[in-house]
Design a protein that fits this description.
Distance between the termini: 8 Å
Largest sheet: 18 strands, mixed
Number of helices: 6
Shape: globular
Strand content: 35-45%
Radius of gyration: 18 Å
Structural class: alpha+beta
Order of helices and strands: EEHEEEHEEEEHEEHHEEEHEEEE
């Protein structure tokens, strides 16, 4: 009987059973695309990763990411969760840095043992189409006045594009009820398939931004913690001086509305030539097991 080892972790977790769930399959190079997609659909987390090749002496690993519906070129919580599993189970625990290779390119991950936080460095952002606020408000079933008119509704990408929507309040975030028919109509003509809303009001006073991320296109009605999209958000906040400064170091809360409270640490700056974006968080080991092929 052929089997493959896997681990389950909670990423951007404040404790066990919070944050975003991830399954990591090790030594998955022999699996076909179809098998990986079927396994991801069976797990039915927002994303599942497969380590397809490894160069431990160089600290480099090839990784593929699948949602229940399709493969994606990059994602945030799978990056930190996979790096955590690699360090705990495939590398020495004093490893300070790894590089994960995705279809979107390499992503470095570093470890801060003092704070027990993993950090990933995201690529340079691209700022895409500006969308009509009224159309997006209709998709979210929100009154248009809940969208902050000082800032654009815009597609941004650091590897996986997202539509960013600035809201006026936490009340606005709580009111959202995505109209799926209008959502799928909207994303017919956009590169980005997920929508992230964000509010300057938060559940906890020591947090800086509350976000929600909706991605039915990928088979994920709402994501508990979205590292890639928060990297896009970081670039957006810096570009538009959301906090009236050119560098930010903030805590972002996500997942509270779906019972998976998550906390992401976000740092970003712009030096006049390039953005410097890092997203960090804690990871909790939940389970290890054997998958029968």
């Amino acid at each position: 009987m052929k089997t493959i080892q896997y681990s389950i972790v909670d990423v951007f977790a404040q404790r066990k059973y919070t944050g975003n769930q991830l399954a990591v399959f090790k030594d998955a190079g022999s699996l076909s695309d179809k098998e990986m997609q079927q396994m991801a659909k069976e797990i039915n987390f927002s994303e599942t990763t497969f380590i397809t090749s490894a160069s431990p002496q160089k600290g480099e690993y090839d990784v593929r990411i699948f949602t229940p519906n399709e493969e994606v070129p990059f994602a945030g919580h799978p990056t930190l969760g996979t790096a955590y599993v690699i360090r705990e189970e495939l590398e020495k625990k004093d490893t300070e840095e790894l590089t994960l290779h995705y279809k979107a390119g390499p992503t470095p991950v570093t470890y801060d043992d003092q704070k027990d936080v993993l950090w990933m460095t995201q690529g340079q952002p691209t700022f895409g189409e500006v969308l009509d606020k009224k159309q997006v408000a209709d998709v979210l079933n929100l009154d248009e006045t809940y969208i902050d008119t000082r800032f654009p509704v815009q597609e941004v990408s650091t590897g996986l594009p997202v539509i960013l929507v600035p809201l006026t309040s936490l009340e606005a975030a709580k009111e959202i009820n995505v109209d799926k028919e209008k959502y799928f109509k909207l994303i017919e003509d956009t590169e980005a398939k997920a929508i992230m809303v964000f509010s300057p009001e938060t559940y906890h006073e020591d947090h800086h931004v509350n976000v929600r991320d909706f991605a039915d296109y990928y088979g994920v009605p709402e994501d508990a913690a979205t590292g890639s999209a928060n990297g896009c958000l970081a670039a957006y906040l810096v570009k538009y001086r959301y906090f009236n400064q050119q560098a930010i170091d903030i805590c972002v809360e996500q997942g509270y509305e779906i019972g998976r409270p998550s906390l992401l640490y976000v740092k970003a700056s712009y030096d006049g030539e390039a953005f410097h974006i890092k997203v960090g968080g804690k990871v909790e080991m939940i389970a290890r097991g054997e998958w029968i092929l």
